[in-house]
Specification:
With 302 residues, this protein is mostly helical. The chain has 2 domains: 65 residues; 204 residues, Up-down Bundle (f41 fragment of flagellin, N-terminal domain), CATH 1.20.1330.10. 27% of the residues are buried.
């Protein structure tokens, strides 16, 4: 039995074959551009499931890294503020020693007192340092408000409470900046109260009482500075922990990338060879179509 096939049917079949080749070329070019073995889930359902799981893991690791970066940024700012605060207290101690040497005249003490008041203002500003989002570093959990504020009598008091946020988004606890009292001391015996007593001593008219206040201020400033340096060491330890966590996340993301390359990775040489073969096939088919049917593929499809 013979089956008669007219020229239109042959041309239509040839055109469909060329369209199919063009579609394969387009898909392959997309894979090469992306470096992926498949671009549609239907091409490899099992591979797509594995790739999706790895992508979710990478997204979680990336979120952890963002949390670590935020915490590291806050701690770096806190470390700088604490170091600068230490320098303020060192200068205050130098001034206290100068005033306590027994030869400083009242006009000189007035000049020293003016500088101490300036140092106190600097220390308040440092204790109320903000992070890049405007949150107060040393106010603990109450980071939307200044950590320290002066009352009606001019005493600088701690206004915060609780612990500051750290890298909880990465599953890490206790890596936020220390609260103000851990660095600057309590309201009664902290750095601000010590500076107030130093100012009181500088203004004291009685020589013996003045000397006692100045000498106690010198000793207290040493204690206050030591407290700040201990806090700075804790911040450094927290930063080192976050650096270690950054390395962990980086290693995890590298493993994810390797997994994705294994699942979706493209054999580039083979893909380019296949692409060249398809292009040659398409070109030959188009030339044959033109010779046999005397019209272009686009004319036929039109």
């Amino acid at each position: 039995m013979f089956v008669l096939v007219n020229g239109r049917q042959v041309a239509s079949t040839a055109a469909e074959r060329m369209v199919a080749i063009e579609s394969r070329i387009t898909r392959l070019e997309g894979r090469i551009a992306r470096g992926e073995r498949f671009t549609e889930p239907a091409e490899d359902p099992a591979g797509q499931l594995r790739a999706s799981a790895l992508a979710r893991l990478d997204a979680r690791l990336l979120a952890e890294q963002r949390g670590i970066d935020r915490a590291s940024g806050r701690l770096a700012l806190a470390e700088t503020a604490v170091a600068d605060s230490g320098a303020v207290l060192i200068r205050a101690r130098e001034l206290a020693l100068l005033a306590a040497n027994g030869t400083t005249a009242e006009p000189d003490r007035a000049v020293i007192a003016a500088e101490v008041r300036g140092l106190k203002d600097q220390l308040i500003a440092l204790a109320n340092m903000r992070d890049e989002t405007g949150r107060f570093l040393f106010a603990g959990a109450r980071d939307g408000f200044p950590a320290y504020a002066a009352d009606t009598e001019g005493r600088v008091l701690y206004e915060g409470f609780g612990e500051a946020a750290g890298a909880e988004a990465a599953g890490l606890e206790g890596l936020g900046p220390p609260p103000g009292p851990a660095l600057f001391g309590t309201d009664e015996e902290g750095a601000f109260a010590i500076l107030d007593r130093l100012l009181e001593g500088l203004a004291e008219p009685d020589g013996a009482a003045r000397q006692a206040l100045l000498e106690s201020s010198v000793a207290d400033l040493v204690t206050a500075h030591d407290r700040l340096m201990a806090g700075q060491a804790l911040i450094g330890t927290a930063l080192a922990r976050l650096e270690s966590e950054t390395e962990r996340v980086a290693a995890g993301r590298l493993e994810v990338a390797r997994g994705l390359a294994s699942v979706k990775g493209l054999d580039l040489a083979a893909a380019l060879s296949e692409l060249e073969a398809l292009r040659l096939t398409l070109s030959a088919s188009q030339q044959l179509f033109q010779r046999v049917h005397g019209e272009s593929l686009f004319d036929r499809l039109g």
